[in-house]
Task: structure prediction
Amino acid sequence: MANLSRAIALLILLSGCCLETRSAFQPTAPEARLVQLMAQRLAIANEVAWIKYSSQLPVRDAKREAEVLAKLTTLASQKGLNEATAQRFFLAQIKASRKQQEYDIRRWKAGATLPATAPKSLKEDIRPKIDAIDKELIGTLSTMSQPRPGLANFADAALRAGGSCRAAAGVSAGALR
Result:
């Protein structure tokens, strides 16, 4: 997780001074934080994938996803966010997490090196991390207006630079279009 944070911070810093980008997008502090949180959420998807792979659980848990989405939409609404906007954003983050998990599991089934550590507890270790990130995402989103042009492309590049697969990065960043 520390390497992911460093990679995203470096990308954010370089976007302003050294990287040639199509749009030369300069994220504001809240936009940069939003992208960092999105990346942290996707990084945790790797841990979720390992748990599901090890336990032979399906990636998709429609009931759990619906519960999470309803809870997050309600929390976001309480912070003053438009419900439809919050629902669209978090649905994209949930789908992106699923894409990352599917990607990881496909790689492992194809013979990629498995994680060296034992899977953690989804309930005790992973969900509290995701919940904390989601709450901070809501807080960050509540300080922002509409996404600026270029933010989605910036987020996509940052997420991929941080190690997310192309499909997951595209779905996650797509919420900012």
Remarks:
- The radius of gyration is 16 Å.
- Residues 13-21 have pLDDT under 50 and may be disordered.
- Residues 29-55 form the longest helix (27 residues).
